[in-house]
Specification:
A hairpin with a 5-residue loop joins strand 10 and strand 11. 26% of the residues lie in helices and 32% in strands. It has 5 helices and 12 strands. It is globular and about 55 Å long. It is of the alpha+beta class. The chain folds into 2 domains: 191 residues, BirA Bifunctional Protein, domain 2 (2-Layer Sandwich); 43 residues, Roll (SH3 type barrels), CATH 2.30.30. The strands form 2 sheets. A 7-stranded mixed beta sheet has the order 1-2-3-7-6-5-4, sandwiched between helices. It has a 5-stranded antiparallel beta sheet with strand order 11-10-9-8-12, with no helix packed on it. The chain binds biotin (BTN). Biotin binds next to helix 1, strand 3, strand 6 and strand 7. The site of biotin has 21 residues, from helix 1, strand 3, strand 6 and strand 7. Its EC number is 6.3.4.15. This is Bifunctional ligase/repressor BirA. Belongs to the biotin--protein ligase family. It is an enzyme of class 6 (ligase).
């Protein structure tokens, strides 16, 4: 019914008019054994969640709100690679479908014109040294107008509609996102992280910039110099020391 271009991703697809959070639904399905490639999508979320416990506004028909279940056979430390992978795949779909040039802010915010158009929330369930499943929630602002954002995020948020000046059909774009996610996931399994890392660096708006990284209640400022083989962000501080971050929130300093 959805006209998928994928071979396994989204072949098990749960569609809702409204749920609290597609990540929550996906985690419950995964806990009950849902297979890799299961997708949960909703027209609206009443309790959409962002990173760091924030709220993610998800009004009906204004965006693409969905979650994916993956069961990669990797160590928990490698799971953050999937976070970067999702950003690469979504950025590719947005670029292909709109012609706009998306930029990725570490680890996986997708920006257009310096404003956030898409956020990704990765949740991992690990048992000892093995990943049991990873749920990735992706929220793309498609036809949201300025009024759809709360005043506090309005200056930093955008949508495809606001960037293009016209409404965008969501279904073909959703199909393209799933297609790119499947393609990049298979590539990651076959070739490892390096191709993802290269594509991430190409789309990055973080590397080479002055950044402030907020991690573990500490703020580090410096120049973002690289993404390492595990997906960690490396920042050179004014003192010349290079620090490595596997999680945190990046603020780009104005250029
Ligand atoms: C962020 O940038 O803070 C992450 C935002 C993630 C939003 C998506 S929308 C679909 C999925 N369900 C949720 O509750 N959150 C994610």
């Amino acid at each position: 019914a959805v006209g998928l271009k994928t071979s396994w991703l989204g072949r098990q697809l749960y569609y809702y008019d409204e749920v609290g959070s597609t990540n929550q639904v996906a985690k419950e399905l995964a806990d009950n054994g849902a297979p890799e490639g299961t997708v949960v999508v909703a027209e609206a979320q009443s309790g959409g969640r962002g990173r760091r416990g924030r709220l993610w506004l998800s009004p009906p028909q204004k965006g693409i709100w969905f979650s994916l279940i993956f069961r990669p056979r990797v160590a928990p430390t490698q799971a953050s690679q999937l976070t970067l992978l999702a950003a690469v795949a979504v950025a590719a779909a947005v670029r292909k479908y709109t012609g706009l040039p998306p930029g990725i802010k570490w680890p996986n915010d997708i920006l257009l014109g310096g404003r956030k158009v898409c956020g990704i929330l990765t949740e991992i369930k690990a048992e000892m040294d093995a990943v049991e499943y990873i749920v990735q929630g992706i929220g793309l602002n498609v036809n949201a107008e300025a009024d759809d954002f709360t005043p506090d995020v309005r200056p930093y948020a955008t949508s495809l509609f606001l960037e293009l000046g016209r409404r965008v059909a969501r279904l073909p774009l959703f199909q393209e996102m799933l297609y790119q996610l499947e393609k990049w996931y298979e590539r990651w399994q076959e070739e490892g992280f390096e191709p993802v890392r290269r594509a991430w660096k190409e789309a990055s708006v973080t590397l080479g910039r002055e950044v402030a990284v907020n991690s573990w209640r500490e703020v580090t400022t410096g120049v973002a110099v690289d993404i390492d083989a595990e997906g960690a962000l490396k920042v050179r501080t004014a003192g010349g020391e290079v620090r490595r971050f596997t999680s945190g929130e990046v603020t780009l300093r104005p250029v």
